[in-house]
């Protein structure tokens, strides 16, 4: 499996930093807020189910967002977000575990911990409702999935092609995200989701990740089968307030 080669230099550097981060000695135990039912509730209430992401910066973004993450999170929930995602990677995304704690305390929707988790002990750095596991970086995906579930976490397994999808399903993933951004070159293409989605079983909660900029993109991902949409840049860097940007994406278009 390709866990090292063919990665953008920024991604290789992120993984190196992740391996070097200290890990806590104590295990966490969490009682998660349920992500699939939060998405279903948003849909039942007539909204597009959106997981809105607090991401101060990224290898493909200029500058750092200095606004208070808790204020951003409240704006996202007020704008109809079904759940939130908080980056905890410090060196390349400006994230922190403290931010995740503060956001999770301030809202009552499920909160995803977005990070590059490579070994079991890294799971213990923070409480969250859901953790992201990136199939491409985990040789023992099944072992990490089990370790996360033992601690109470729900798990979003990220894939970006059919082969990774098969690995995720074999490992027992029940929430799968298809990342439209290719980690080999950081380029976004919404066709990635469209090509993988038809192969995902109906009983799996399916999330479209990255590159969803406007309501037309959102409608396109929903038509292709997304149960939820993970959106960062379109909400935190859009023209209006975070609340208005979120509402624009959580409001269905007439034809969707
Ligand atoms: O800002 P965007 O294009 O809306 O993307 C959000 C999210 O999908 C993206 O931040 C992401 C998807 N998978 C990741 C893995 C690690 C870090 C970040 C990500």
Automatic annotation (TrEMBL):
InterPro entries: Aldolase_TIM, Indglycph_syn_Halo_TrpC, Indole-3-glycerol_P_synth, Indole-3-glycerol_P_synth_dom, Indole-3-GlycerolPSynthase_CS, RibuloseP-bd_barrel. Pathway: Amino-acid biosynthesis; L-tryptophan biosynthesis; L-tryptophan from chorismate: step 4/5. Coiled coil: none annotated. This is Indole-3-glycerol phosphate synthase. GO terms for molecular function: indole-3-glycerol-phosphate synthase activity. The keyword Lyase applies. NCBIfam families: Indglycph_syn_Halo_TrpC. Its EC number is 4.1.1.48. The gene is trpC. Keywords: Amino-acid biosynthesis, Aromatic amino acid biosynthesis, Decarboxylase, Lyase, Tryptophan biosynthesis. Residues 16-246 form the Indole-3-glycerol phosphate synthase domain. HAMAP family: IGPS_A (MF_00134_A). It is an enzyme of class 4 (lyase). It catalyses: 1-(2-carboxyphenylamino)-1-deoxy-D-ribulose 5-phosphate + H(+) = (1S,2R)-1-C-(indol-3-yl)glycerol 3-phosphate + CO2 + H2O. Pfam families: IGPS. GO terms for biological process: L-tryptophan biosynthetic process. Belongs to the TrpC family. The keyword Amino-acid biosynthesis applies.
